[in-house]
Structures are given as structure tokens and as C-alpha cells.
Amino acid sequence: MKSIHDMEFLKEKINQLKESGLYKEVVTLEGPNESECIINGKKVINLSSNNYLGFSNHPRLKKAAIEAVEKYGAGAGAVRPIVGNMRIHDELEELLAKFKREEAVLVFQSGFNCNAGTIQAVTEDGDLIISDELNHASIIDGARLSKAKKTTFKHSDMEDLERILKENKNKHNRMLIITDGVFSMDGDIAKLPQIVELAEKYGAMTYVDDAHSSGVLGESGRGTVDYFDLHGRVDFTIGTLSKAIGVVGGYVAGKKVTIDWLINRGRPFLFSTALPPAAVGACIEAINMLMESTEYTDRLWNNAKYFKGKLGKLGFNTGQSETPITPIIIGDESKAKEFSNRLFEKGVFVSPIVFPTVPKGTGRVRCMVTAGHSYEQLDKVVNIMEEVGKEMNII
Ligand code: PMP
């Protein structure tokens, strides 16, 4: 007899995912995340990581992590409001506040946690959250956890945003506009100056998630607020420490009072143990490296321009990307997967991205060029993409 514990309902759902090309498989890397890595015993050029600057296996970060372990141990012990901050947590937050040119910063265990904790803490019943329709899942979930009303505006459509602001002015206690700084699956940059202007016109607060702009855009990778010179005009700036910074963690930068409130009401901060010292030590080293020199961000942008230039000539649909994120949009999910599989067979690892990460019918592979790639590797990738693209009638 069938039992509920056989999880038949999940098996059925998984079969449906498989039939529609939406089932995900996760590969295993035999070693560090580098521009070249070993997967299933095969050496492949890696275009799937967010390790923009090649920091995740950098000797300086590893040394800083080891030193932090020796000084502070392997774990943080408990949630910070109970066991206290370790000095190294304070140091990272002070450094990030200086880097972001904001009054204060609070670090969470991940960028996801940061959005999940911050949005619900700074909005309440009677407020309205206005979110770009392509915002990251952690923003969507953060908004879901809030008691505020929620609505979305068409992607980067300032007329639609203004329509919503106009219609809702004086109907809510407060309005909060939320946008990704750089859209993670398309690589386009938010129209932050216009968003800030509209927010100021209609008295709304602003919130930008700089996960893919930290370490990438602005002076020394300070993010979109710096890139557009909007210091002091964005209320909440989120960053991750997991992508260009190469480690793990997320943070919110803003006014001291905001950080004070999040220490008291940011649930992941209150109820989940802090980042381990090794991660914090490595993050401090990474931020110091960014402040010391633009060597890595320059190399990232050079590589991105080089790769995009070559790929663009082949006729792939690379969307509206303005940053190193380079999607090749294929549409059909199964075809996107097939493209990725064939590239892998020829030595290029570039993951397929399908619903729910991107809207249905916009399946793609997302090429992430990093500072760690060589021109030789990028040439090889482009040649293989041309070959497979032609085989599959994509170009
Ligand atoms: N925000 C955006 C825009 C992201 O792309 C991501 C990562 N995919 C996150 C937040 C979550 O960051 P983390 O991986 O540090 O949890």
C-alpha cells in the first residue's frame, strides 16, 4: 500500500520538472573555484561562477582566513545579540562602512538573509513595497515576509514606476522602491538616478541590491550608488560578500539609525549565528585589496569587453547586458540545457538558467567572465560556442 512517506507527490512534481526541461542537476567541483576547474573528472573552462575578481581562491584571502581561525577559532559561538560581536565582525563592518561611504553597515550570513531580514524589518502594515519585476528571489521573499502591500513595476520602466507612485501617493504610510543594482540574469544596470529622482518627487524610500555591482561597478567596485554618484540619496544599499568579494555573507549599508533598528529587528541577525571568523577575515582582506588597487576590477572589465566583443560578432542574442554578466538567451528551456551540455562536452562549463530563476520561455546560459580568465581561455570558449551554436541552429 502506498504511504504518504513514500513522497509520491514529490516524485510526480519532479517528473513534471523533468518533462518540461526545468529539472536542475548540480555538478561537483573537485577543488577550488577557478577559471578552469575539474568537474566529473573533466577539465573545463568555468564561466558559471560569480567569482568576478578571482578572489575566492586568492592566496591573500586564504592567508587572512587562516589567521582569523587561529585568532578567533572556527565558529562565532552563537547569535551576535546573545554572545556578542567578535572584534573581527566590528572591523569588517567599520571597513565596509568606509568603503561604501555610508554611516554604518550590518553584516548578515548571506545576501539572501540580508534581503529577507531587512525588507521585512523596515516595512510594516500600511506601507507599500514597489519592486522591479525582475528583482532577485531574495527580494521577493523579503517582501513576502513583510506585512506591507506589494506591487511590481515593469522591468526598469520609469513610466510604469511613476504611474504606481502617483496612484499610491498619500494612500500609504510609506512607500519603498526596491531594485537590483545590476540584474543578475541579464546584466543590465538599474536606472538608479531616475529611480532616486522619482522617489524624491513622491516621497518614497529607496533600496538597491548591489549583489552583482559590489566589486564590479563604481570607484574600486563600490557599487551602483557610487557609479551614479548618488551617495546619501539611497536609503538602503545591500551588498554580498559571496560574489566579487569571493567569500560569503551579505550586508546592508545606510544610516546609523537603520543599522541600530536592524540589530533589534533584523530576524536573521537576531536568530541565526554570525559568519565564522575565517570568512570575516577573508572578506576584510578582499575589501582592503579593492581599496589598494584597481588591478582586479580593471582586469575584469578588460576581459568582459574582450569576450563580449567577440561573442557579439557571432550573432547570439546576448540581451541588454551592460556588465560582465553575459547571457546567451535561447528561449526554449530544453534547448538551453542541450546547449550547455554540448558546451560541457567540449570543455566549457556554463550552466543553463531556466524558470524560476528567469521567466518561462527565456531559458539561457549565463556566461560569467572573471578577472581570472586569460584571453586564450576566452578565445577557446568563443570558438566552441560558435561551433555548437551553428550545430544547434542558434546562430
Ligand atoms: N541579491 C542578488 C541580486 C543576487 O543575485 C544574489 C545571489 N544570487 C543574492 C542577493 C543572494 O546573495 P548570496 O548568494 O550572498 O546569498
Q: What is the CATH architecture descriptor of the largest domain?
A: 3-Layer(aba) Sandwich
- β-strand percent reads 15-25%
Tertiary shape: globular
Give the terminus-to-terminus CA distance.
Answer: 52 Å
CATH topology of the largest domain: Aspartate Aminotransferase, domain 2
- The overall pLDDT average reads 96
Low-confidence stretches: none
The ordered H/E elements are HEEHHHEHEHEHEHEHEEHHHHEHEEEH
Radius of gyration: 22 Å
CATH class of the largest domain: Alpha Beta
Q: Helical proportion?
A: 40-55%
Describe the structure.
The protein has two domains: 24-52 and 294-392, Alpha-Beta Complex (Aspartate Aminotransferase, domain 1), CATH 3.90.1150; 59-292, Type I PLP-dependent aspartate aminotransferase-like (Major domain) (Aspartate Aminotransferase, domain 2, 3-Layer(aba) Sandwich). The chain is built from 15 helices and 13 strands. The protein has helices at 8-19, 59-72, 80-83, 87-100, 111-122, 137-144, 158-168, 192-202, 224-227, 256-265, 267-271, 277-292, 295-314, 333-345, 375-391; strands at residues 36-39, 42-46, 104-108, 128-132, 149-153, 175-180, 205-209, 236-240, 250-254, 325-331, 348-349, 352-353, 363-368. It has a seven-stranded mixed β-sheet with strand order 3-9-8-7-6-4-5, sandwiched between helices. A three-stranded mixed β-sheet has the order 1-2-11. Strand 6 (175-180), helix 8 and strand 7 form a beta-alpha-beta unit. Helix 4 (87-100) runs parallel beside helix 12, helix 7 packs parallel to helix 8 and helix 13 packs parallel to helix 15 (375-391). The longest helix has 20 residues, at 295-314. 4'-deoxy-4'-aminopyridoxal-5'-phosphate is lined by residues 110-112, 115, 136, 138, 180, 184, 209, 211-212, 240, 242, 250.
